[in-house]
Every structure is written in C-alpha cells, then in structure tokens.
Amino acid sequence: MTRKVFEVEEQATGGRRPEFTLGGQDFDCIPEEDVSSLDLLDLIAGFTGDNGLARIQAMVQIFRQFIPADDGRPADGDAEGTPSSMDRFHTVVREKRVKLSLLSDIASYVLDEYLRFPTREASPQSTPSSTGSETVSSSNGAGSSAPQAVTSAA
C-alpha cells in the first residue's frame, strides 16, 4: 500500500488582511495567519446551507471572529479613546441602517478573502520515502471571483 505524506508549511507572519469599507469607514480584518482552516470550514458549512438561522449565526460569527474587537484605545486622562474596529462596525451598521443583504455580501467577501490563502505549487514529482510512502506538497486550488468593493449608501 502506498501512503502519501502531506507536508505542512509554516506560514510567514505579516500576511494579508481582508479589508473593506462601509459607510465611509475602513475595516481591516485579522491577519490570515491567525485564522484556522477548520474554523473556515465550519463557517462555510453554516453560511452556505439552506437553514436561514444557521446562515445568520455564521454571518454573526464571521464578524465577531474576523473584525478586531481589541484594537481600540481606551480613554486615558485627557486623551479621548479610540473605538475598536468592532465598535466602529456596530456604529456604522446601526447608524446607516445597513440591510441584512449587504451584511451577507460583506460576510461572503471576507470569507472568500480568507479562502485565498497563499499556496505553493506541488513539486513536479513526488518524493518516495524510505518507507515506500510519497511526500506530497499541499496546494489549494480554491479560486473565486474577483473581490468587489463593498460600500453602503448614506
């Protein structure tokens, strides 16, 4: 029997951050190296199913998990605090009365951006090991349509 061995590469730090603009505010999501592939699979399963409640729960989880809630600065003495990205996101969604369909589009976009993890081309030939197994590079062929800017009319 032949066994394939898949090598897992360590990702470099400082990777891409999905970003979008909503209501004139720019939002950067967490870096891709901080995202678990298993978490993405769970979110995809919930977000793409026929169960409307599960889709909404997955959408809320996407925002909670990927928009930083700890990047703000609390008020300190005379200095005015800076709200976190999540606080700003909540404010824009409430003040602009952003429709659920637009939030769904944003969640889809963010999820799609995380699916574009960098990949390495598989080597032209597999390398047999001393046990008769093959070492194979993992590559992700997931592709998707080009991202679109997502904005909300005031």
Explained architecture:
The chain is α+β, with helices and mostly antiparallel strands. It has a domain at 34-70 and 82-117. It is 34% helix and 12% strand. It has helices spanning 37-48, 52-66, 85-95, 100-114; strands at residues 4-7, 19-22, 25-28, 127-128, 134-137. The strands form two sheets. It has a three-stranded mixed β-sheet with strand order 1-5-4, with no helix packed on it. The longest helix has 15 residues, at 52-66. The protein starts with a strand and ends in a 17-residue tail after the last strand.
What's the quick description here?
The protein is of the alpha+beta class and 154 residues long.
SSE layout and pairing:
Elements: E1 4-7, E2 19-22, E3 25-28, H1 37-48, H2 52-66, H3 85-95, H4 100-114, E4 127-128, E5 134-137
Parallel strand pairs: 1-5
Antiparallel strand pairs: 2-3, 4-5
Envelope shape: globular
Strand content: 5-15%
What is the mean predicted local confidence, pLDDT? Answer: 76
Number of strands: 5
Helical residue percent? 25-40%
Q: Which stretches are poorly predicted, pLDDT < 50 over at least 5 residues? A: 119-154
Estimated structural class: alpha+beta
Number of helices: 4
Strand arrangement within the widest β-sheet reads 1-5-4
Task: Report the sheet with the most strands, covering strand number, pairing sense and barrel closure.
Answer: 3 strands, mixed
Radius of gyration: 20 Å
Distance between the termini: 63 Å
Order of helices and strands: EEEHHHHEE
Supply the key terms:
5 strands; 154 residues; 12% strand; disordered C terminus; three-stranded mixed sheet; alpha+beta; two-stranded antiparallel ribbon; 4 helices
